[in-house]
Amino acid sequence: MTCHSALKSLLGGATLALALAAPALAQETIKIGAVLSATGPASFLGDPEEKTLKLYVDRLNAAGGVGGRKIQLVTYDDGGDANKAKTFAQRLVEEDKVVAMVGGSTTGTTMAMIPVFEDAEVPFISLAGAIEIVEPVRKFVFKTPHTDKMACEKIFDDLKKRSLAKIGLVSGTGGFGASMRKQCLAVAAKYGVEIVADETYGPKDTDVTPQLTKIKGTAGLQAVVNADFGQGPAIVTRNYRQLGITLPFYQSHGVASKQFIDLAGEAANGVRLPASALLVADKLPDSDPQKKTVVDYKTTFEENTKQPVSTFGGHAYDGLMMVVDAVKRTNSTEPKKLRDAIEATKGLMGTAGAITMTPTDHMGLDLTAFRMLEIKNGEWTLAN
C-alpha cells in the first residue's frame, strides 16, 4: 500500500452519521497550531518538523480533509527562544483560536508553553524529549518522542548485555542534557551500572577535551555515555576519538539525524544510540509491525523534501496523526473532547512506535519502541 492509500485509509471509514452531519459542521476547519524551532541552534529539530507538518496537512487536505473538514495549520518559528515560544503560544490561543497544538521542538520551549495551553485547556502535543514534560502528568499535555529516562534505560540495558558496568557520563547543561543526566543517575543502579565519572559542558563550549580527559583517566572505566542534543554531541564525539579513547561510546536519541553523522564525520562510526525504527526503516524485516508506517513516512518525506529523514520529523508526523485520529473518533473540533480522545489513543502506529495513552501515561510508548542502533560507515544499522 502506498503512503497515499494509507492516508486514504486513515481518513476513510466515515459513518453515515458523519456523512449526514450539518453542512456548517462539514465545512468547519480544524485549526492546528505549531510553534517550532525552524531556525536557530535547534533548527535540526524544527526544520524537519515544520516540513513534515506542512507536507502532511497538504496531503490530508488534498485527500478531502478529515471528515470533510480541512486542516488549517498556523505555524510560528521561535528560533529556540523560550520567551518567544510562550508569546507565540499565547497568540495561538487568544488570537488564532487553535483547537490543538503540535510543536515545541525543545524541552526549554515546551516547558515555557505548557502553562499557556493548560490554562486555556487546549491539547498540546510536544515534540521534545525530557520526561518532565509528561511527569507529573498534566491534563492537556502529551508528547510523541521517547523520554530521556527511556534512553538511559535502553542504553543501560545494552551495557548490561555487554557486561559493561563502570560508566563515565558527560552531559550538556541545557534542558535536555541536564534532565537526561538526572534520569541516568536515578536508574543506573537498577541495571547494575555504576557512574564512576560525571562531567558536564555548556551549550557554547567548542572543546570538551578537558572533561573527557578526566573521564579517560578514571580507574576501571568501561564505557562512556553522552547525554545531550544538538551540536554538542558532535563536538564530544570528535574530541573522544581525538583523545584515542577506544571504549564503547553511547549517545542519546537527541542526535538521531544524519546531521549528527555529518558533523561528527568518521568519529561517529561505532557510536551506539537508542532511536526509533524510522532510521533503519529499510533494514526492518517485513514481519515488523512498524515497517509499513516508517517506510511510508521515510519515502514521502525524502521524495518531497530531498532531505534525509530524521526521527524529529517523525515525531511531528505522530503528533499530527494523533490529532487527526482524535477528530475522527469524536467528530468534533472541541478542544476538551479532543483532549479526552487523545488520552484514549490505543495502538495508533506512529514512527516512534505503537502509541497507547492512558490517564497516567501521556506519551504512550514503552522500551520496545526503541531500537539500539550503531553507526557504521556513516550509516545507521541495527546493533548486534
Rounded radius of gyration (Å): 21 Å
> Any idea how many domains?
2
Please trace the helix and strand order, writing H or E for each element: HHHEHEHEHEEHEHEHEHEHEHHHEEEE
How much is the average pLDDT?
92
Question: Could you describe the largest sheet, including whether it forms a barrel?
Answer: 5 strands, parallel
What is the tally of helical segments? Answer: 14
Q: What is the distance, rounded to the nearest whole angstrom, between the alpha carbons of the first and last residues? A: 30 Å
Q: What fraction, in percent, of the residue positions are helical?
A: 40-55%
Q: Could you give a quick summary of the protein structure above?
A:
With 384 residues, this protein is an alpha/beta fold.
Description:
By secondary structure, the protein is α/β, with parallel strands linked by helices. The chain folds into two domains: 227 residues, Response regulator (Rossmann fold, 3-Layer(aba) Sandwich), CATH 3.40.50; 128 residues, Rossmann fold (3-Layer(aba) Sandwich). Helix content is 43%, strand content 17%. The protein contains 14 helices and 14 strands. Strands 2-1-3-4-5 form a five-stranded parallel beta sheet, with helices on both faces. A four-stranded parallel beta sheet has the order 7-6-8-9. A three-stranded antiparallel beta sheet has the order 10-13-14. α8 links the parallel β6 and β7. α7 crosses α8 and α10 packs parallel to α11. The longest helix is centred in the first third of the chain and has 20 residues. About 5% of the residues have low confidence. Keywords: Amino-acid transport, Signal, Transport. This is ABC transporter substrate-binding protein. It comes from Prosthecodimorpha hirschii.
